Amino acid sequence: MIRSMTGFSRIDSQQPWGSLVWEIRSLNHRYLEQSLRLPEEMRMIEGAVREKISQNLSRGKVECSLRFVKHAGALGQMQLNNDLAQALLDLHRQAKQLTNDSNDLKAMDLLRWPGVVEEGEADLAPIHELALSQLDQALEALIAHREREGGSLKKLLQSRCTQINEIVLQLREAMPLIRAGLRERLLKRMQDIDIEADPGRLEQELVIQLQKMDVDEELDRLQTHVKEVTNVIKREEPVGRRLDFLMQELNREANTLGSKSVSVDSTGASVDLKVLIEQMREQVQNIE
Length: 288
Prior knowledge:
Elements: E1 7-15, E2 18-27, E3 32-37, H1 46-56, E4 60-70, E5 78-80, H2 82-99, H3 107-111, E6 117-119, H4 125-192, H5 199-212, H6 216-232, H7 240-259, H8 264-284
Parallel strand pairs: 3-4
Antiparallel strand pairs: 1-2, 2-4, 5-6
């Protein structure tokens, strides 16, 4: 199944000690570009996070963020920074003497001072493991989102391929009439300017004009490219780059068809083809 490069996923894990929240956004991009935002406590797993993203995604601009919220004292034993607390008490005593303030420093006020209460270093390895496990779930959800959008893109491409084939078949059927019309116009011009042309020379000129307007090869290649598009979108692997190349080839054949046009019908067919191909090309830009 083809995948879109646009997607979003969010995984929220609530734990007794706090929470982990993964958010992943992806947009279309020529290559895989990762942008990570991890809290300081999770910097150790940055390499593993990048590797998991690379293993699951091949293209797209991926913004991945992790929020780590922990409850005070839940991961490590709380203890008093005696040196800092004593220094604050000494400063308070000196300030009282200078200001003749009789108020005493309350214990809770002292504990609220930044750094007075320290949390012992916690073992974050289990949390790192949990975070990576949650990342797997977030990536699975993101891929599911991209595959759903990819399914819609696949239907759109199939519809446009069907329309292109219909235009090609209609043009093939019209070519004998277009050639006959070219012959009639050439004969009429000769009559209008009252010139008696050599029949052999006239046929030779007609053959030259018909060769210039011969579009059988272009129509064959258009059908071949359309068939390849329908085959490619059935693959399970990333096909965005290959489809982008096929859009270029389709557009080239449509341009050539237009340059060889000698009738309103073939000109209109060329314009219709280019419109359909451009619609496909815009969608292909978002396929992984």
